[in-house]
């Protein structure tokens, strides 16, 4: 997605070989026009998948997910992140390890918003090791629903998440794929210019 | 806002005299069409205020805020919530007490996304005691920018936040105002049917 790649080039800040900061348009300040285009692009890429729900995780996934849900004409659900839980009635819970924060969180979704007939599109802002996406997929599968696809705004393709998700059989669509952040420079994975 | 009031009547669950659960369309599952209409309504109510930024707080404020920002054609920023912070460089920090969770959080916004010339529209999903809205307003004022208005999706008008914010001189626009949750029933404050 050219618009997004241009934005990464212009405003992305390479903090290290592993960390790309995009807080001017995706993680803290958000560009609503770009988010709308992201929603359109996910809708185009998952056309024909008969999506019934969009699922994301708080907080940075919410804006791209609500725009995608608007475009698809379906509800959006955001999973909540907790340190740990006592109350477990009527909720779906999965553990997700964060490599960035070096901690395990529990993510939760209320059972009443997913049913076995659902075809769920998972949306997230970043894909690195795939922990969050796998956690969301397990939530969907716990209830017997189908993961119809996984849409990622920025994939760090030098980390294994994308490959692992594809090996697990999921259709992963990343709007930009970053091949490397070495030498303080963003290098994109080869892709058709869209 | 009739659409929103209807939704509260149809799907809102009164958990106690103080607590209204709206997790089917605002706090967990979200209705994207409703969020778009919420964005349009805030834009209509704050027309002429020359808004330059929309500011909200994670997580449930993000969807109404991004839709408002899209309609206004300005960037959106979401403040982050933390338990407490050590790193304080280049960020604006305010303490916010949560009556619901009975804890004090620090909310933060990066200094680089606000400037003294900004006219900021604060958006939040709920208004009760006004702690979050006051915290966001102090963030805006710390940098010398102007709070151009405060837009609330659902105000619990039986709690003091709305009155306190207006007494402090802010223009507060709540799309629905709940006067009471007594006897398990939602009663709305009198307002012109829009």
Automatic annotation (TrEMBL), chains A, B:
One of its GO terms (biological process) is xanthine metabolic process. Transmembrane segments: none annotated. CDD domains: PRTases_typeI. It catalyses: XMP + diphosphate = xanthine + 5-phospho-alpha-D-ribose 1-diphosphate. Homodimer. Converts the preformed base xanthine, a product of nucleic acid breakdown, to xanthosine 5'-monophosphate (XMP), so it can be reused for RNA or DNA synthesis. 5-phospho-alpha-D-ribose 1-diphosphate binds at residues 128-132. The gene is xpt. It is found in: Cytoplasm. Pathway: Purine metabolism; XMP biosynthesis via salvage pathway; XMP from xanthine: step 1/1. Its EC number is 2.4.2.22. Keywords: Cytoplasm, Glycosyltransferase, Purine salvage, Transferase. Xanthine binds at residues 20, 27, 156. It is an enzyme of class 2 (transferase). This is Xanthine phosphoribosyltransferase.
